[in-house]
Amino acid sequence: MNGFLAELKRRNVYKVAVAYAVASWLLIQIATQVFPFFEIPNWAVRLVVLILTIGFPIALILSWAFEITPEGIKRESEIEPSKSITHHTGRKIVALTLVLGVIAAGLLAFQLLGPKRATNFQANTASAPNESAGPIPDKSVAVLPFENLSDDKSNAYFTEGIQDEILTRLSKIAALKVISRTSTQKYKSAPDNLRDIGKQLGVAHILEGSVQKISNAVHVNVQLIRVANDEHLWAESYNRKLDDVFGVEGEVASAIADQLNAKLSGTEHEAVTEKPTQNTAAYDAYLRGLSIEHDQYGYEGYQRATEAYAQAVQLDPKFALAWARLAVLRSFLYFNSVERSVNTPVAVKEAADHAMALAPGAGESWIAKGAHAYRILRDFEGAVAAYKEAQRRLPNNSFVLQNLAFVQRRVGRWQEAETNFKKALELDPRDISLLSAVGGEFYMYLRRFDDARRVLDRAPGDCPRF
Question: Average per-residue pLDDT in the chain?
Answer without folding.
Answer: 84
